[in-house]
Amino acid sequence: MTERVTLSQIAKQCGANKSTVSRVLNNRCDASFSVQPQLRDKILRVARQMRYRPNLHAQTLARRQTRLIAVPRLVPSGDSEHVPGIYDAVTSHLVPYFREHGFEVCSTYYDPQHDKTLLPPWGVDGLVVMHRSPSHLIDELEEAAMPYVCVNCPTGPAGHSIQVDDTGGAELALGHLLALGHRRIAYRRFRTHLPPLHSSMIARHDSYLQFLSDHGLKPVKPHDGPWDEPELYLRKIIKAGATAVLAYDHVEAIRLLKASQKAAVRFPQDLSLVCFNDEFPCSMVMPSLTSVALPTAEMGKHAAQILIEQLNGQLTGESPLEYVLPETLVVRQSTVSCTM
Amino acid sequence: MTERVTLSQIAKQCGANKSTVSRVLNNRCDASFSVQPQLRDKILRVARQMRYRPNLHAQTLARRQTRLIAVPRLVPSGDSEHVPGIYDAVTSHLVPYFREHGFEVCSTYYDPQHDKTLLPPWGVDGLVVMHRSPSHLIDELEEAAMPYVCVNCPTGPAGHSIQVDDTGGAELALGHLLALGHRRIAYRRFRTHLPPLHSSMIARHDSYLQFLSDHGLKPVKPHDGPWDEPELYLRKIIKAGATAVLAYDHVEAIRLLKASQKAAVRFPQDLSLVCFNDEFPCSMVMPSLTSVALPTAEMGKHAAQILIEQLNGQLTGESPLEYVLPETLVVRQSTVSCTM
DNA sequence: TGTAACTTAGCAACCGGTTGCTAAAGGGTT
DNA sequence: AACCCTTTAGCAACCGGTTGCTAAGTTACA
Questions:
Q1: Cross-chain residue pair B123–A57, CB shorter than 8 Å
Q2: What is the DSSP letter of A220?
Q3: What is the pLDDT of residues A213-249, one digit of tens each?
Q4: Phi and psi, residue B99, nearest 5°
Q5: With a threshold of 0.90, does the pTM exceed it?
Q6: CA angle B80, B86, B92 (to 5 degrees)
Q7: Residue A68: beta bridge partners?
Q8: CA A199 to CA A251: how far, in whole Å?
Q9: CATH number of the domain at B166-294, out of 2.50.20.10, 3.30.10.20, 1.10.10.10, 3.40.50.2300?
Q10: Is B76 helix (H, G, I), strand (E, B) or coil?
């Protein structure tokens, strides 16, 4: 770390004591402290001249609070292509809100392979967790009494969380298809053989089954079990009479789009397509994708709000908050009336 | 900040002095210090039992170094859709490398609207800058003698940097088109009326002009000046006889793809398409995009390497390093032989 | 037995701020 | 002039570690 201007240096310059300088710069003019305008101005001037920037480590040590929020980010393992989820969207809404309230935000990097904690080695006042994390890591947060809020991922027993209503989103999407006359609706699951990485993998699939059952429809196979390559999957569901597909996310949807040529399926004429996650490039592909938008702005804002309240001690004693935010449907070109 | 176990508490538990505990936990057994195995083990055991985690702020203060690297990230302004560049790809390669060398990495958020510095308010040992930043911010880094390395963006007079060879990349792309028989090659500029946000906007365009000129070809208008909507742009270049397009980035390319229907152009039959940035979803759109891949892994690794060497004082006195890394061409479906 | 040399561990200052408490200076009143 | 109150500002301890130096205890050797 490069050497910086310190309080004492400023104090010496001004012929004052560093405690005075500290109080002036922090505007600590309570009943027990005051300065003459003359000295005050001099201190402020000198500090600006010397480009004084307080050492946050020292401040943290003395104040016992950092006003720093960590947002752990998953380090992508291996050389897999970076596929964007909603992390960035939510984070970008989180940051300004925290800043308005005097908190800084930093992303830390959590590598499931190596890291044994979500907590950064430097102190923070709180965390916003956006990835499903091993429960012992969440437990650790609670043991350490570290304020945190989970966004779109499972929380611990005492943790507040922001969830999205995937069931409602699925209903919007499926209702839309139903209204367009579709009766044979398939579900395209997430691209992995691994056990569910995220609760949405279960929620979206379950909601699919529930909705169909509620409306007297039968699921189109395959909707679970082993993962088929896109082309094979399309052939299977077409054979099974599907006229529409609900995809786990935009990436799956885009892969289906791509496989359509080989599988001799035309979107949307032969098959309508809806997906979760209205993120790039949903609006830019051809046909543009009808998709369920997660309320990323709201998620970010509420998460920040809850965490700030926690930090201000306004949420003690209450039972954990769980906000469930609605999703919305953005209709585009990939869904059309059923012609079958 | 929640209260944590401190050195002194451990020391008291062990009936030892905190300095001894500190040295044991940090394995400081130089010539001037040693402990009996018995005490050593006890300290280690108690520390583990009490789940001791050193306070990094205190350590930083005492050691005068943080072993923390900041990677500023642009806060997207307004509600614009998050469009991924290569930031994430590079960062994900940066992190493991730094960690292997004992450094932690955090992303900080830089908001051009409000922030007057790239430096986070807490101390860091160095920065990896990946966004074109106002030059006075870079100057500030140099004045503060803060080690930094710029990746794919302009650096200050004394700053090391990692650049990519956009000219080479353009030559690969254009050479590929040339080999396929294309002679009327258009260039699709970045989607903004603003002055160049990034040097690549100039470099790629210039390289385009240079290559054509070198090979006795004429640019297809419009390749600069006001930005046209994708559809209008396509109509214009088709009218001008274009058989291929080089796009500034994958987002532009995808937008062109989308506009093709309205503009009555077929990719790749009527128009071949190459773009810079081989990122999601280049391989997943239809037709998949022939694209120039930036060496994100290499960029991350070299950036980390240079910064670590700087931090170790191995790079003093030398003139600034500038690594220029080659780009590679990934040929996919969007480019075919010219049939005109 | 005295002493040099080595091992083991503690003292205390320091990193750069913050803050409770106290002291000095200034002003007003009796 | 003595006294009290208020304003102004400094002293010093503290936050939780790190580290140079020193002290106590052991062993080795003359």
A1: yes
A2: B
A3: 999 999 998 998 888 999 999 999 999 999 999 999 9
A4: -65, -40
A5: no
A6: 115
A7: A104
A8: 17
A9: 3.40.50.2300
A10: coil
